[in-house]
Design brief:
By secondary structure, this protein is mainly β. It has no helices and eleven strands. The model has no long low-confidence stretch (mean pLDDT 95).
């Protein structure tokens, strides 16, 4: 399984970005694809995840109402639309995949993409 994340960049507070994670190397009907982030000096934290087969989604409290996860089955791609960005959203964002239900801790994920940096200026 390979995951390719893209879409990071520099944005002002209140702005928006959309991250993409293209998955390849397997059929993903039974997979959960998720997003984590890691700010400098902090641990990696869960952001959001989507279970391919059920469409179930889950968000951390810190992003609920501002971020939206979605997927394109034909492209095996999951997106993270980030609105109303805050400086505290600044981090390297990683996409991750696992077989089975959504988990909110990073050790539960078997596959990781490279990170994409999101910087939100105040």
């Amino acid at each position: 399984v390979q995951l390719q994340a893209s879409g990071g960049g520099l944005v002002q507070a209140g702005g928006s970005l959309r991250l993409s994670c293209a998955a390849s190397g397997s059929t993903f009907s039974s997979y959960t694809l998720g997003w984590f982030r890691q700010a400098p000096g902090k641990e990696r934290e869960f952001v959001s995840a989507n279970r391919w087969s059920t469409g179930n989604t889950y968000y951390s409290d810190s992003v609920k109402g501002r971020f939206t996860i979605s997927r394109d089955n034909d492209k095996n791609t999951v997106y993270l639309q980030m609105n109303s960005l805050k400086p505290e959203d600044t981090a390297v964002y990683y996409c991750a995949a696992r077989r089975g239900p959504i988990l909110t801790f990073s050790l539960g994920y078997d596959y990781w993409g490279q990170g994409t940096l999101v910087t939100v200026s105040s």
